[in-house]
Specification:
The protein is mainly alpha-helical and 123 residues long. Helix content is 59%, strand content 8%.
Length: 123
């Protein structure tokens, strides 16, 4: 399920990309599963259809989804591309934090705390 934070700093189309990649990484969406049409997802999330179409275009360009004319968009063969997309942003933020003087141990502690939080949410 994709959730959008309209007050966040991250562009909405990036949040959509992250949401779909997250669903693929978690196994919620599997190879050849159909994803909602851009207009349907836009209506569900209360967004402009062009925003969703932009996200879908990026995901297709990155090989995470593919489209079939007249049929819709589907999850491409899972080759770790969704995982890679999710981790690239994290890696860049970690590099930025280290360059700014945040200690390696602080980042490790944050990752561990985040993992415990997720484990707690998932029961």
């Amino acid at each position: 399920m994709i959730t959008i934070d309209i007050t966040g700093r991250s562009p909405i189309y990036e949040q959509i990309c992250r949401g779909i990649c997250g669903d693929i990484a978690k196994g919620i969406l599997k190879e050849n599963d159909r994803i909602p049409a851009a207009r349907a997802l836009a209506k569900e999330l209360g967004l402009n259809p062009n925003t969703v179409a932009k996200a879908y275009g990026i995901l297709e360009r990155d090989g995470i989804i593919y489209s079939v004319a007249g049929k819709g968009c589907f999850v491409a063969k899972h080759e770790g591309k969704a995982d890679k997309r999710l981790t690239e942003e994290f890696e860049q933020k970690a590099v930025d934090a280290l360059k700014a003087g945040v200690s390696e141990q602080t980042l490790i502690d944050i990752v561990k705390a985040s993992a415990e939080k997720v484990k707690g949410e998932n029961g």
